[in-house]
Amino acid sequence: MDTLNKLRTQIDQVDRQLLQLLAQRLELVKQVGEVKHQQGLPIYVPEREAEMLNARRAEAETLGVSADLIEDVLRRIMRESYARENQFGFKTVNPAIKKIVIVGGGGKLGSLFARYFTLSGYYVEILEQQDWQSADKILNETDAIVVSVPIAKTVETIKRLKPYLTDNMLLVDLTSVKRAPLQAMLDVHAGAVLGLHPMFGPDIASMAKQVIVRCDGRFESRYQWLITQIQIWGAKFYQVEATEHDHSMTYVQALRHFSTFANGLHLSKQPVQLANLLALSSPIYRLELAMIGRLFAQDAELYADIILDKPENLAVIESLKQSYEESLAFFTHGDKQAFIDSFEQVKQWFGEYSEQFLKESRQLLQQANDYRQI
């Protein structure tokens, strides 16, 4: 035990040295953030990150240290670094923008964008549902209006803005459906129009590496400043037509949210205790339970609106039910070979992505297991 205690003491000393080095690194990150703020450089530079990780991996291997270990450690440190860089604010890309109004800016997503615009030096006002009697005053001399309201109220809200719009204004929405809101903006506004869909929730620590879908509307040159500003925050854009976006969201959002809800509903009706399931879970099942439980920690109305958005969603969900019935039939008929054949067909459809997803999920499982306490 004396030998073990001495070794543990040495480990504690090394851990303290690591803490000192982390504090030193974060201080350097602070200085980097200040320089980026002054020069208007983006928070996230993928080329720099990849170059640094490759170099550290190679150096780790020469020291007999797992390259995967050092990459895991550095990625977690970098995530903290990106979050810390936010506190220094961002360069104002377009100083000519004197006022931005966020309709629904009191909500979670609206307030997130309000904070980032403020950190970028813009003056921001909020227009909430109870403020429409003062809309004339709030929207007066506004340069950009960002609509961030529930899906079911988005088109109605856009139409309600029409009397207050002037041709020099930029009109943007942040809704997770795009075709109808974009068309509504084009119908009511003769000026610049842009549809955006942030592919993340309002609880992010940083915009670094986050994806925002971009559906162009009208007068791209007039909103290029906004694109550049958001890129400085660290986000990346994926440009797509509004109709194609909504078709893809049937699978990315509506189908996934429905199946997650159905799994949670089914579990809640079973004669099982969640604590027992967690205690007996493998890392993969625990992660699956976490993703189901995550849904029920959020806003039910949001998910209902996403699923009910268009008939296509319900048609695809109906096909999911048919796939469940088809899959169950393999086993009710005892047809193992049919299941294997179907499995192989799906495997071929995933192709090389299967191996990529296996690697990504392995990392997630390792992290989930690291935090396991029961």
Write the layout of secondary structure elements.
Blueprint: H1 2-39, H2 46-62, H3 67-85, E1 100-103, H4 108-119, E2 124-127, H5 135-139, E3 144-147, H6 151-160, E4 170-173, H7 179-188, E5 192-198, E6 211-218, H8 220-233, E7 236-239, H9 242-268, H10 274-279, H11 283-295, H12 300-307, H13 311-332, H14 336-350, H15 353-370
Parallel strand pairs: 1-2, 1-3, 3-4, 4-5, 6-7
Antiparallel strand pairs: 5-6
Strand order in the largest sheet: 2-1-3-4-5-6-7
Question: N-to-C SSE series?
Answer: HHHEHEHEHEHEEHEHHHHHHH
- Write down the overall geometry: globular
Q: Strand-residue fraction?
A: 5-15%
In brief, what are we looking at here?
The chain is an alpha/beta fold. It has helices at 2-39, 46-62, 67-85, 108-119, 135-139, 151-160, 179-188, 220-233, 242-268, 274-279, 283-295, 300-307, 311-332, 336-350, 353-370; strands at 100-103, 124-127, 144-147, 170-173, 192-198, 211-218, 236-239.
Describe the structure.
Strands 2-1-3-4-5-6-7 form a seven-stranded mixed sheet, with helices on both faces. It has helices at 2-39, 46-62, 67-85, 108-119, 135-139, 151-160, 179-188, 220-233, 242-268, 274-279, 283-295, 300-307, 311-332, 336-350, 353-370, and strands spanning 100-103, 124-127, 144-147, 170-173, 192-198, 211-218, 236-239. Helix 9 crosses helix 13 (311-332). The chain has 374 residues and is α/β, with parallel strands linked by helices. The chain contains 15 helices and seven strands. The chain is 63% helix and 9% strand. The chain is globular. The protein starts with a helix and ends with a helix.
